Amino acid sequence: MWALLPLKDFVQAKQRLAGSLTVSERRGLFHAMVEDVLTVLAAHPGFERIVVVSDDPAAQLLAEHYGIDCWSERGLGVSGLNDVVAAALQKMAELTHARVSTATAMVVHGDLPLLGAQELNTLIDRHKTLMKTHGSAVSIATDRHGSGSNILVCDPARVPALSYGRDSCAIHFDAALAMQLPAQVISLPGIAQDIDTREDLHRLLAIPPSAEAERTLAYLHQAGIAQRLRQLDSGAANTSTQAWSAV
What is the CATH number of the domain that holds 78? Predict the structure, then answer.
């Protein structure tokens, strides 16, 4: 099994948090989350190879630090998440075809700081179970809303039409069935908690201390973001209370 981590420009990451974090804070947050993800992937024995796909110099430095590969988007000759992932999976298929008849790729996104080894094991085991009677299969670990594709596991030579974005989980599931590939949707709490909004940050900050999200939580506290969010919410709650009292 190979792991593929597509990473956008770190400066442009997490645009939906623009109302809560500065550009440098969003970049720092994304960098910390990617490190949490790579720490888990690099330590997991189930991956033969881990590949980051990005043109951002920070991604190259992280790849060197973790001893993994970094493929350039420009080198793949495409742009946009769907085309980049599809091209990277095609390259994986070409590289593995000469050695194995069936390969498996896991597409993981960088904003999953609560990703843990135990949930990875569960996902891998359930995918292997689905493949016992089929040469190829598709497993989707969805987000907490049941709409996104936080992790996609598939044969890189038989990839369903990719459509990351709104309702991607259902779209990928239907695309797999259209190719006559068995598919399953899996909900795992750590993988399901991606970080896109201020509410997601609050949920992350509210979790009990654990081995996951170590770098992300440290960054949120050291950068003063955690304290600022608490103060903003406290102020908003007080304003709401005063408004009701005045009615």
Answer: 3.90.550.10
Question: Do the Cβ atoms of 6 and 84 come closer than 8 Å?
Answer: yes
Residue 77 domain boundaries: 2-246
pTM above 0.90, yes or no: yes
Closest CA to 111 of 22, 202, 211, 190: 190
- 49 DSSP β-pair partners: 2
pLDDT < 70 positions in the chain? 98-101, 234-247
- Give the count of alpha carbons within 13 A of 35, CB side only: 17
What phi-psi label fits residue 115: left (phi over 0), alpha (psi between -120 and 50 degrees) or beta? Answer: beta
What are the beta bridge partners of residue 71? 53
CA distance 210 to 83: 36
What's the longest Cα–Cα distance across the chain? 74
The string of pLDDT tens digits covering residues 108-150 is 999 999 999 999 999 999 999 999 888 899 999 999 999 999 9
Asked whether the beta carbons of 182 and 144 are under 8 A apart, the reply is: no
Residue 20, exposed/middle/buried by CB under 10 A (0-12, 13-18, 19+)? middle
| In contact, 139 and 183? CB cutoff 8 Å | yes
Domain count within the chain: 1
DSSP state, residue 102: S
